[in-house]
Amino acid sequence: xxxxxAFPEGFLWGGATAANQCEGAYDADGRGLANVDVVPIGKDxxxxxxxxxxxxDFEEGYFYPAKESIDFYGHYKEDIALFAExxxxxxxxSIAWTRIFPKGDEAEPxxxxxxxxxxxxxxCRKYGIEPLVTITHFDCPMYLxxxxxxxxxRKLIDFYEHLCRALFTRFKGLVHYWLTFNEINMILHAxxxxxGLYFEEGENAEEVKYQAAHHELVASALATKIAHxxxxxNKVGCMLAAGxxxxxxxNPDDYWEALQEDRENYFxxxxxxxxxxxxxxxxxxxxxxxxxxxxxxxxxxxxxxxVDFISFSxxxxxxxxxxxxxxxxxAGNIFASLKNPYLKSSEWGWQIDPLGLRITLNTLWxxxxxxxxxxxxxxxxxxxxxxxxxxxxDYRIDYLREHIKTMNQAINEDGVExxxxxxxxxxxxxxxxxxxxxKRYGFIYVDRDNEGNGSLKRSKKKSFxxxxxxxxSNGTDLD
Length: 479
Ligand code: BG6
Fold this sequence. Notes:
Belongs to the glycosyl hydrolase 1 family. This is 6-phospho-beta-glucosidase. Helices cover 38% and strands 13% of the residues. The protein is an alpha/beta fold and 479 residues long. The protein is globular. It binds 6-O-phosphono-beta-D-glucopyranose (BG6). 6-O-phosphono-beta-D-glucopyranose binds at residues 18, 21, 182-183, 241, 313, 376, 380, 424, 431-434, 439.
């Protein structure tokens, strides 16, 4: 057996999910409708999540996988017990905004929604699992989209503030780690899913997106401020869909292109971690003629309430080229990127690059000097269970092992400060990009298919025992 250097003491090993992809129970106990409920599986999903096609309610002839999902709402005790059996130190999950404020603009929160999350957090604590809570993971109340236009409207800052106050006060002492917006840069790529944005014809989509981004950035700073006021032990992080861009060749034009692409993503974190709009962004807005409304108070909030740590998802690196005739992009991913001929791909065409994780960790650490947290990483694959629901998912173990190795190097050889690692979809759940159940990431298999058939029975895959050993050995035993 090969042994590796241990991870730092107290390293937060765990797994991650999001409310809309696992809870189901979309109308239980007063929950309101959210954007993430009305995105169906199938060919219309992409135009809907990108704000090109309008779907504001359930329509005939579509299947909406988030409605029932894997019913974490009804199974949370069983699921958390399984996470505990694997030895999770942390569990990343998200709050469904519409359980707390069904429409989004009510004066008082919905007690049943608060109670549900209190039960979940207490269940975690029973096993010594530290909850890591994403305040919004792609969800926005439909009422706020229909009546206010989603995050394009400045009023969303107030509604979000209201949500945060309700959460921070009610869960004081139960939750210490908060993330303000999942993959905040997704607003540029999937604006309906990321920020409840639908574009009317003739609208300047770029301007709307950056205005909405500004509102989210201010809301994030405000949440950080309130979290610290309510409980000085609270730690608040931002969250980036990360993945370094490589230049396609050593042609300086390609390098320049890669730098521009990286900046498009780092822009958000530059604001959240350093507290101000970077010069390159101000120049870009001016060049594009974007008229963005920002108040002097906004800028003070951004400056004074930067995040405590930087979290990110990492699935792959990306490739950029200045040569617009190159067209061979990777399949399936919401972020279009050129194909990297040195890398293998998953069944969904996502390229696999463990070293890219070390590169991304080092780049983020060098750029911000703030603690990092990998809150998503994993392999979406087709699993074939035997009659007992057992899946021999060696391909998933291989993927995770190779990524954990480079994480280890980033910490022990490069000196990166990394607080924890939560693999994506620790229990099988609905894919955000495609709406499929078939694209599975979990250590725990859930009997449910793309059409919503199945008993919802949970069973352990081979990777379950493997990850348990990884955690128990604090990363020294990866066999
Ligand atoms: C991230 C999201 O983009 O990637 C998750 O934060 C998502 O919500 C994950 O599920 C994997 O993507 P997909 O499309 O395979 O579900």
